[in-house]
Every structure is written in structure tokens, then in C-alpha cells.
């Protein structure tokens, strides 16, 4: 059994899969020794470094709790958002069990069964489901604090990313991502940039199940895990330079979206719409322009001029293309939101489709 496990381990980590032809893990180790002997501060990425991201993800969630509690919750209360809880309907074990399985009001034979078991009429059952569903929705203060944390992180990591990459040659010429590959060393700034980003997406993939549920839940779940896989994969295969460019491009639009939501929850409609308009432009430019034309083009066509292809390279490009497909889907949804909002003259209502709606009285107050 041990021999079999060893063979599987050796096959999985075969340099013929993870590294270009004529380059082995022993080559990388020798380069590391030469680096130490030459007294250079920069070092090579190691797979074991990724283990730091797990405790960092826990730290990230603790920092989030503090930021939400000490910064954005008081700010939300100062802006007039109320921490209200909607009343629950009368306790009914039969209906509660059905609600936990599906929040959608049932029809037909299932409705008849619920009416019979709960000893309520169809209208009463429907009313119970509506009230129970409203009670489960988070209030605006909860949304405000969650959004505030994301805006805080996205803004901070964007500024940190620019500070790390501004003096890097590959930031100005993407072909430098491939020069000398895989003999790429990294400095402390890039190391922290990668690990903090990875920890954040790990924390999001966990907290997503406890945060405000959104209609694009599974799309975001795929996005978070594709990002995690992409970052781990690029780190292991030493595609870190192109990986940092992927991160910085993706980070550009995120703070604007979260900022627009903050203004929306605080009922600054005109400011919200202005920020959302800027976000739409930055999103299209970065996700549908810069990313495919600059990064994806380079990985597909520039890289082949600097080293021979290998299996990990194709997997890496597959992950990058998966992200681009998600970009196209989300851009289409963004286009539909803007198109419908312009026709109705109410962009605020359309944006709320991406998350659970407030009750009707809340909506009327916002108008």
C-alpha cells in the first residue's frame, strides 16, 4: 500500500507534468541553493508556502468580524439604518419543515398535503410562507456591514497590489512574465500579495454559506473556487508573474461595486448611480478588454515563444478561460440590468435583483 501511494505521489508531482521539458524539480532546488549562496534576498515560490493561506483565512474572518462590528455597524447606525428583526409567523412544525426544504410556496398535491397536516387553508399556508420568507431576509444594516467589509478589503488590496507591482518589469510589459521562465524569484511584497488574496478568497468561499444569499450564489461559488485553484496552480508552476496581473485586473472594479452598494443601502441614490456607472465602465474595460486582450492573449500566444508547452500550462490556461467565460456571463447580466433599468428609469430596483429584496414598506421608503 505504501509503495502504491508513493508511486501515485511521484506520478502526480512528476516534473514532466508541472514543469517545461528539460526542467526538473532538482533544477529548481539547485537554483534555490545558488540563490542563497549569492546572498540574494528574493527566493522561489514553494508549494509549502500555500499552507500559510489556511491560518491566514481564519485570521481574515476574525479581522472581518472586527471591521464589521467596530467600523461599519456603527457607521450604518449613524446613517440611519436600523437593526430590526421581522416577526416570525405562528410556530408550525409541519410548515417549518417544508420551508427548510424549499422557500418556494408549493402547489397541487403537495399543497393539499401541507394544508391537511397543518390544519390550515391554502390561503393561510401561502400567507405563512410569505411571512416566514420575509422574516428570514437580512435587514439593510446586515447587508451594509457585509458590503463594507468587502469594500474595505478590495480597496486596501488594490492599493497594495499597485504598490507591489508598480516597479515590476512585467507590469509594464507582459512578455516579461515569460522571460527566463521558470527561473522566477519573488520578493516579500509579491509573496504577501498572493497569500493575502488567496486567504481572502478562501474565507469568502466559506463565509458565502452564511452571508446574505444572492441570486448568483453558485456563479460566485464557482468564481471563488476557480480563483483559488488558479492561484494555487500558478504558484506551484511558477506562473506567479502572470498571476499577479490577473489579480490586479480583477481587483480594479470590485471596490466600485461595493461602494455603489454602500451608497444604495445608505439611500444616497444619485451617488450610488454615479458610482455604479463608473463601475460598469471599469468592469467592461478590465474584464472584457484588458484581461482577454492583454493577459489571456499573452498566455495563449506569447508564452509559446519562450518555452515548450507542458500539461500544467494547458490546465492553467483552462482556468484562465473559465474566468473569462464567467466574465462574459456577468457582463451580459450587467447589460440586461442597465438596459431594463434605463427603460424603467429606475436602476436602483434592478440592481436589487442580485440579492434578496426588502419588504414592500422598505422599498417604498427608498423611493
Q: Can you describe what's shown?
A:
The chain is an all-alpha fold and 367 residues long. The chain has helices at 2-12, 15-18, 25-37, 53-78, 93-101, 108-118, 122-136, 140-165, 169-172, 188-207, 217-236, 240-251, 254-265, 269-302, 311-344, 347-351, 360-366. The protein contains 17 helices and no strands. Helix 4 (53-78) packs across helix 8 (140-165), helix 8 packs antiparallel against helix 13 (254-265) and helix 12 (240-251) runs antiparallel to helix 14. The radius of gyration is 25 Å and the shape is globular. 26% of the residues are buried. Residues 348-367 have low confidence and may be disordered.
Topology:
Layout: H1 2-12, H2 15-18, H3 25-37, H4 53-78, H5 93-101, H6 108-118, H7 122-136, H8 140-165, H9 169-172, H10 188-207, H11 217-236, H12 240-251, H13 254-265, H14 269-302, H15 311-344, H16 347-351, H17 360-366
Helix pairs in contact: 4-8, 4-10, 8-10, 8-12, 8-13, 10-11, 11-15, 12-14, 13-14, 14-15
Sequence stretches where pLDDT stays below 50 over 5 or more residues? 348-367
Radius of gyration: 25 Å
In round numbers, the mean pLDDT is: 83
- The secondary-structure element order is HHHHHHHHHHHHHHHHH
- Counting H and I runs of at least 4 residues, what is the number of helices? 17
The major sheet is characterized as: none
Task: Kindly state the percentage of residues in helix.
Answer: over 70%
Number of strands: 0
Structural class: mainly alpha
Bin the strand percentage: under 5%
Gross geometry: globular
State the distance separating the first and last CA atoms: 68 Å
Oligomer: single chain
